[in-house]
Write a structure and sequence with these properties.
228 residues, eight-stranded mixed β-sheet
Amino acid sequence: MPDVTGSAVPDFEAPGICTVIDAAPEVRGEFLPVEEYLAAFREDYARPEVKTFDKLECGQVFKEPGSASWGAFSRGDWPEAVRLLQDAVPAMGQQFTKAEERGLTLRRVRYVEVPPSDYLVWEMAVLRERVRLGEQVRVFVSQGRPGFSAPPPRWFSELVIIGTVRLYELRYKPDGVIAGAFRFSAPELIDACRADFDRLYGAAEDLPSFHDRVTGPLLRDRCAGASA
């Protein structure tokens, strides 16, 4: 197993995120099925006053049927997955060019349980390319979910914070395909979750060093095994 020391995040409370997790159904934000969520997300993301986009990603396995690289990975063809990822980089770069033009900062905190799942080995290669293109990604390792006095439910997979205007808590089906998202608009809750995110981000490890030490060697092993 590659060395994962040095990437654990110290324990601390995350009151904003815990509020989202603990919210009762009757006080939760509106749940949007996937197509409605995507439409609302695009509208919020495009708002000119939005200058930061933060994502806390905790799920260890997702399905991404829209990605050709993920499709190759899911078939066990690791070399083809890497090749298709490289083919996709120019298209990926368009998002970052547009973000730079509008002064938008893109940040992500990626939580990793060890040993990393095969999905995470693949996703870390994708995130490494996103870092090269301009996204600010940091990683932390833990055996429980981040920043909580007790582990939250396993369904807590992803939180998206769009500037100071919107918060989405994404939900996924049991097979790992996105189902939709709860939408929150209360400014005080958004501010609290942004503060939690900032603390997690500040305590985590830069993705390139984590990938070089941990998931990069695992990716090379997967590719070598598939080619043997």
